[in-house]
Write a structure and sequence with these properties.
Elements: H1 2-6, H2 8-40, H3 44-75
């Protein structure tokens, strides 16, 4: 128990990044559907907007997953 107690702050810091990384994975299908719908409607501006949002979500998810992996690796 004392080993875990020493690493409690690292684990607490890693938890939000684990949550954010998981949430971004759930957003992908919705964003893909929005891009496809915009393409179907032939709305270039909406396609570009949705692709930009998708790239931002991918970047946020990648950084969150990297920090999560780093912090849990540091803990282990």
């Amino acid at each position: 128990m004392s080993i875990v107690w020493e690493q409690k702050w690292t684990l607490i810091l890693a938890a939000p990044f684990m949550f954010i990384g998981g949430i971004t994975d759930f957003l992908f299908p919705n964003l893909i559907a929005k891009v496809i719908d915009a393409m179907k409607d032939q709305n270039k501006d909406l396609v570009y907007y949705n692709l930009k949002v998708w790239l931002v979500i991918i970047a946020i998810g990648a950084v969150a997953t990297m920090l999560n992996s780093y912090l849990f690796g540091l803990t282990s």
